[in-house]
């Protein structure tokens, strides 16, 4: 049966709604970014890199994070083109710095807008019971 043909159902909403394929692709891309953002150290790393390029040791020291774990997070962010690793081989020892890509800066701006929306969200939103604790999702370990 052709999805665009009319059906003899008594409910008008029973007819299949054609959905552009790009609709699903966009949501899958967003879900992939949300998955990366939900990793434990990603948001603090992005916040630090938003202030400028930093070396691996500077990031590890500022976050008090294990170097191996930080390397994994930075690698994931590089794979998603959020962070760029610059290697300056003209000096000894070799200088490696991490900074946000233009897409990474855009992402940080979106996250800032999201935080602002959360603080100043719609007034008609129901805050829930006064004695209820907000549920804070625990970050999933990427490994």
UniProtKB/TrEMBL annotation:
<dbReference type="Pfam" id="PF01638">
    <property type="entry name" value="HxlR"/>
</dbReference>
<dbReference type="InterPro" id="IPR011991">
    <property type="entry name" value="ArsR-like_HTH"/>
</dbReference>
<feature type="region of interest" description="Disordered">
    <location>
        <begin position="120"/>
        <end position="143"/>
    </location>
</feature>
<protein>
    <submittedName>
        <fullName>DNA-binding HxlR family transcriptional regulator</fullName>
    </submittedName>
</protein>
<dbReference type="InterPro" id="IPR036388">
    <property type="entry name" value="WH-like_DNA-bd_sf"/>
</dbReference>
<dbReference type="InterPro" id="IPR036390">
    <property type="entry name" value="WH_DNA-bd_sf"/>
</dbReference>
<feature type="compositionally biased region" description="Low complexity">
    <location>
        <begin position="124"/>
        <end position="134"/>
    </location>
</feature>
<dbReference type="GO" id="GO:0003677">
    <property type="term" value="F:DNA binding"/>
</dbReference>
<keyword id="KW-0805">Transcription regulation</keyword>
<keyword id="KW-0804">Transcription</keyword>
<feature type="domain" description="HTH hxlR-type">
    <location>
        <begin position="28"/>
        <end position="126"/>
    </location>
</feature>
<dbReference type="InterPro" id="IPR002577">
    <property type="entry name" value="HTH_HxlR"/>
</dbReference>
<keyword id="KW-0238">DNA-binding</keyword>
């Amino acid at each position: 049966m052709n999805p665009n043909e009319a059906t003899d159902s008594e409910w008008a909403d029973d007819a299949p709604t054609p959905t552009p394929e790009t609709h699903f692709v966009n949501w899958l891309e967003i879900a992939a970014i949300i998955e990366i953002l939900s990793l434990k150290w990603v948001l603090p790393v992005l916040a630090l890199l938003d202030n400028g390029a930093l070396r691996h040791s500077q990031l590890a020291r500022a976050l008090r994070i294990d170097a191996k774990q930080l390397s994994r997070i930075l690698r994931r962010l590089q794979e998603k083109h959020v962070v760029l690793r610059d290697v300056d081989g003209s000096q000894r020892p070799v200088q490696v710095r991490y900074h946000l890509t233009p897409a990474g800066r855009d992402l940080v701006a979106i996250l800032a807008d999201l935080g602002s929306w959360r603080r100043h969200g719609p007034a008609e939103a129901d805050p829930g019971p006064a004695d209820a604790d907000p549920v804070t999702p625990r970050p999933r370990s990427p490994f």
